[in-house]
Specification:
By secondary structure, the protein is an alpha+beta fold. The chain has eight helices and 43 strands. The chain has four domains: 153 residues, Agglutinin, subunit A (Orthogonal Prism), CATH 2.90.10; 132 residues, no CATH class; 140 residues, Hepatocyte Growth Factor; 167 residues, Transferase(Phosphotransferase) domain 1 (Transferase(Phosphotransferase), domain 1, Orthogonal Bundle), CATH 1.10.510.10. β5 and β6 form a beta hairpin. It starts with a helix and ends in a 15-residue tail after the last strand. This is non-specific serine/threonine protein kinase.
C-alpha cells in the first residue's frame, strides 16, 4: 500500500516534469493530425521566429503572422490571411491532404489557403529558422521540392534568404507590398518589385505611378542604392526565364529586416540588443533626388544644390522658361545636336546613379572598349556603361533618352554618353599641358570660408555659390587680400581635363575689363575657381537700386559702358581665342573699388579657334 502511494507520487512527479519539458520544447511543425489554435504558436528550431495569431494595432481582427520571438513587441514580418481577417479567436491553422495549408474559422469555413498544386504523401508545415514557413513532404528538406513557402508570398518585409523577384517555380511575381494601415495588413497601394525589362532594376510604385527606381544591378548592388551592409552577401540571379535578387546573412545572429512602409520608403532595420531597440541604418529612397525622373531627360540631381536639378554638362534645358520656374519635367537636350554620319563620340560622366535601364540591352562578356565600338555602330545607341563593375566586364546599352540620373555622394558609376564630335573641344590636346596657374589647397579654402558657411557666401552664380575669403597665410597671395571663390556645383559633370582646359582658357584672357582668375582648386569632387574680389559687387545691385543708382552719375555710367565694350572687343577680336560670352547681363558685370567694370562668369562662354569665322548656334542660351 505504502509502496503504491509512493509509486503514484512518483508517477505524478514524472508527468509534471514531462509537462514542463513539453511546454518548454516549442514545436515548429504542424502535421495533418494537428491543429494550431489561436493562443498557441510555432517556434522555429533555434527560437528566432514565432508564428501565431495576432491583432494589429487597436484592431480586434485576428491574423496569422510571423514575428521575431526574441524581440519584444516585434513587428510582424509576414501575414498569411492579409486580406481576410478572422473576427474571432477561434481560428484554426491546419494542414490537409494532399498538401494544403488552410486557415479555418469556427464554422469550419476555409478563410485562407496556400492554394498549392503540388502534392505530398505526408504533408507537414514547418517554420524554419530562416523565418520561412514551408509546406513540404515530411522528410524532404530540399528547398526545391517545397510545395509552398511563405518566402514566395512576401508581405511588406524582406528577410535574408528570400528570392525577391520572380518565383522560379511558378514564374509568379513576388513583390513587397505595404500594409494598408497599422491596423490592416491588407496590401496597400505601394509595391516594390523587381522589373526584369531591359536589365533588372527594383522599383517602388504608388498605384500606377513609379516613385523610385533603385537602378540597374552592377555586380555589387543596385546602382542607386548606397553601400550594402557587410552582415550579408547579396546577388542577382538571372536566366532566360527568371530573375531574382537575394541576400543571405553572414552572421546569423544579426536580427534585421527591410520593410516597405506605408509612405513608400524601404527602411532597413537592425535590432540592437544592448539598447533593446530597432535602429534604421538605411532608407531608400535616400532623399528627394531619388524621386523618379525628377530632373527629366539628361537632367541630373545633386542634393547639395538649390535647386537640386541641373542639366548634365554639355546639355541645356529643353524649355528654359519652365526650367527656370522649377518645372524640370521637359529635361535637357544636347547643346550641340548629334550627327551620327559625321561621327559621334562618347564622353564620360562620373559618379552618377545609372539611368533607367528599361529600354536597355546588355552583353555580359564584352569589354568596355568593345562596348564603345558596338554602341558607336548603332546611331540609336545613346550611351553605354560597364555592366558588372565587380568582374569589370559586360556592357549595358541605352537606346532612348537617359532619364532619372542623380549625382551620388559615394560609389557612383561612370557612363559614356553619345555626343557630337565637336564637343570634344578644340583644346583637347592641351590637357597634358602644364597648368601654370596657382593651385590652391582645399583645406585652406574650406577653413577660410569657415567650411563654406552661409555667412561668407556672396551669391549664387549659374554654376554654384560664390564665397568671399580673406587670405591669411598663403605663399601665393598677399596677406589680408580678399578673394572670391566660386565653388562649382558637383553636378557640373565636367571631367577634370575639361575643367582644366576651361581654366587654362580663362586664365589666358587678361584684360583690365575682365575679372581676373587667380587660381583654382581641384581636389576629389571639388572644383573651385578663385577670382579677385570685387568690393562693389555687381552692376545690377546698383543700377536697379533706387538709392544706389543715384550715386552713379552719367560720367560714371559712360565709364562703365565703355569698359564693358572694351572687354567685349577684347573677347571678340583681340584675344588669342575668340570668345562669345553668351550670358552678358548686369549681374555679370562686377565693379572694383574704383568702379571699373569687369566682365565675369564665363560658364557658358563659347570659344572658337583663332581662324574660325563662322559657326552655327541654333539654341538660345543664358540671356
Ligand atoms: C466563416 O467563414 C465563412 C466564409 O468566409 C463566413 O461566411 C462566415 O461568416 C465565417 N464565420 C465566422 C464566425 O467568422
Ligand atoms: C489558386 O490558384 C489558381 C491557379 O494558380 C488560381 O486560378 C486561383 O484563383 C487560386 N485560388 C485562390 C483562392 O487563391
Ligand atoms: C532558370 O533558373 C531556374 C532556377 O535556378 C531554373 O529552375 C530554370 O530551369 C532556369 N531556366 C533556364 C531557361 O535556364
Ligand atoms: C516611412 O519611412 C520614412 C523614412 O524613415 C519616414 O519618414 C516615414 O514617416 C515612414 N512612414 C510611415 C507611415 O511610417
Ligand atoms: C556578347 O558579345 C560577344 C563578343 O562580341 C559575342 O560573341 C556574344 O555573342 C555576345 N552575346 C550576346 C548574348 O549577344
Ligand atoms: C583656420 O583658420 C583659423 C582662423 O580662422 C586659423 O587660426 C587656423 O590656423 C586655420 N587652420 C588651418 C588648418 O589653416
Ligand atoms: C557706389 C559704391 O558703392 N561705391 C563704393 C565702391 O567701393 C569703394 C571701396 O570699397 C567705396 O568706397 C565706394 O563707396
Amino acid at each position: 500500500m505504502e509502496k503504491s502511494i509512493k509509486d503514484v507520487a512518483f508517477l505524478l512527479l514524472l508527468s509534471f516534469l514531462l509537462s514542463i519539458l513539453k511546454s518548454s520544447t516549442a514545436i515548429d511543425i504542424i502535421t495533418t493530425t494537428q491543429i494550431l489554435r489561436d493562443g498557441s504558436t510555432l517556434v522555429s528550431s533555434g527560437g528566432t521566429f514565432e508564428l501565431g495569431f495576432f491583432s494589429p494595432g487597436n484592431s480586434k481582427n485576428r491574423y496569422v503572422g510571423i514575428w521575431y520571438k526574441k524581440v519584444p513587441n516585434s513587428a510582424v514580418l509576414w501575414v498569411f490571411n492579409r486580406e481576410i481577417p478572422l473576427i474571432s479567436t477561434s481560428g484554426m491553422l491546419k494542414v490537409i491532404e494532399p498538401g494544403h495549408l488552410v486557415l479555418m474559422n469556427d464554422t469550419k469555413n476555409v478563410v485562407c489557403t496556400s492554394n498549392t498544386s503540388r502534392i505530398a504523401q505526408t504533408p507537414i508545415v514547418q517554420l524554419l529558422e530562416s523565418g520561412n514557413l514551408v509546406l513540404k513532404e515530411a522528410n524532404d528538406d530540399n528547398a526545391e521540392n517545397f510545395l509552398w513557402q511563405s518566402f514566395d508570398h512576401l508581405s511588406d518585409t524582406y528577410l535574408p534568404g528570400t528570392n525577391f523577384g520572380r518565383n522560379s517555380a511558378t514564374g509568379v511575381e513576388n513583390p513587397l507590398s505595404s500594409w494598408t494601415s497599422n491596423e490592416d495588413p491588407a496590401p496597400g497601394d505601394i509595391i516594390c518589385y523587381l522589373d526584369p525589362t531591359g536589365y533588372p532594376q527594383a522599383f517602388i510604385k504608388r498605384g500606377a505611378v513609379t516613385i523610385y527606381r533603385m537602378g540597374p544591378w552592377n555586380g555589387f548592388r543596385f546602382s542607386g542604392a548606397p553601400n550594402v551592409s557587410p552582415t550579408f552577401t547579396n546577388k542577382l540571379f538571372m536566366n532566360k526565364s527568371t530573375s531574382y535578387y537575394r541576400e543571405d546573412s553572414i552572421d546569423k545572429s544579426v536580427i534585421s529586416r527591410a520593410t516597405l512602409n506605408q509612405s513608400g520608403v524601404i527602411q532597413r532595420w537592425v535590432w540592437v540588443d544592448q539598447t533593446r531597440g530597432w535602429v534604421i541604418f538605411l532608407t531608400l529612397p535616400t532623399d528627394n533626388c531619388d524621386t523618379y525622373k525628377l530632373c527629366g531627360a539628361y537632367g541630373t540631381c545633386y542634393i547639395g544644390n538649390s535647386p537640386a536639378c541641373g542639366c548634365l554638362s554639355r546639355f541645356v534645358p529643353k524649355d528654359t522658361e519652365s526650367w527656370i520656374k522649377g518645372d524640370w519635367s521637359n529635361g535637357c537636350i544636347r547643346r550641340t545636336p548629334l550627327n551620327c554620319q559625321k561621327g559621334d563620340v562618347f564622353l564620360k560622366y562620373s559618379n552618377i546613379k545609372l539611368p533607367d535601364s528599361q529600354y536597355s540591352t546588355f552583353n555580359e562578356s564584352m569589354t568596355l572598349g568593345e562596348c564603345k565600338v558596338e554602341c558607336l555602330k548603332d546611331c540609336s545607341c545613346t550611351a553605354y556603361a560597364q555592366l558588372d563593375i565587380n568582374r569589370k566586364s559586360g556592357c549595358l546599352f541605352w537606346f532612348r533618352d537617359l532619364i532619372d540620373i542623380r549625382a551620388m555622394s559615394s560609389a557612383g558609376q561612370d557612363i559614356y554618353i553619345r555626343m557630337a564630335s565637336s564637343e570634344l573641344g578644340s583644346h583637347r590636346g592641351s590637357s597634358n599641358k602644364h597648368l601654370d596657374l596657382p593651385l590652391f589647397d582645399l583645406t585652406t579654402i574650406s577653413n577660410a570660408t569657415n567650411r563654406f558657411s552661409i555667412d561668407n557666401k556672396l551669391g549664387e552664380g549659374g554654376f554654384g555659390p560664390v564665397y568671399k575669403v580673406k587670405v591669411h597665410k598663403d605663399g601665393m597671395l598677399e596677406e589680408g587680400q580678399d578673394i572670391a571663390v566660386k565653388r562649382l556645383s558637383k553636378t557640373s559633370m565636367q571631367g577634370i581635363d575639361e575643367f582644366k582646359n576651361e581654366v587654362i582658357c580663362i586664365a589666358k584672357l587678361q584684360h583690365r575689363n575682365l575679372v581676373r582668375l587667380l587660381g583654382c582648386c581641384i581636389q576629389g569632387e571639388e572644383k573651385m575657381l578663385i577670382y579677385e574680389y570685387m568690393p562693389n559687387k555687381s552692376l545690377d545691385l546698383i543700377i536697379f537700386d533706387q538709392t544706389k543708382s543715384r550715386l552713379l552719375d552719367w560720367h560714371k555710367r559712360l565709364h562703365i559702358v565703355n569698359g564693358i565694350a572694351r572687354g567685349l572687343m577684347y573677347l571678340h577680336q583681340d584675344s588669342r581665342l575668340r570668345i562669345i560670352h553668351r550670358d552678358l547681363k548686369a549681374s555679370n558685370i562686377l565693379l572694383d573699388a574704383n568702379m571699373n567694370p569687369k566682365i565675369s562668369d564665363f560658364g557658358i562662354a563659347r570659344s572658337f579657334g583663332g581662324n574660325e569665322i563662322e559657326d552655327k548656334t541654333n539654341r538660345v542660351v543664358g540671356t
